Amino acid sequence: MQNILSAGLLSKNIKIKKYRNQILPVILYGCETWSLTLREKCSLRLFENRVLKRKFGLERDEVTGEWRKVHNEELNDLYCSPNIVRMIKSRRMRLAGHVARMGKKRGVYSVLMGKPEGKRPLGRPRFRWEDNIKMDLQEVGCGGME
Cβ distance 112 to 129 under 8 Å? Predict the structure, then answer.
């Protein structure tokens, strides 16, 4: 896919469609159940920026007339779609809605909302899926909802 995304013969719209239809589904497979750390979020954003830079390529500066790399903020404006971390959060919240409507006897509910048995390692506990959902709800502004 690197050759296709960096090819000069294809238009930017075709490259965006290739990215959305072929690359993103592979990357985001099963992302609804992920418990992302800051390092994972940064690596996903880095990957997305690399793909977008390869897709949009260099840009000619209007003042000097020289070719320059496109900055990340400009990439976000050109791509005009939510970034990969926001897509993961929205998918995770959509699954949380489905899980909340399920009964407590369903397997998915017991796996995602249940408390595992056994000891945890020393130090700060790792974020669970439920903790990430609560943080996502606070970002949206629905922090008091259960």
Answer: yes
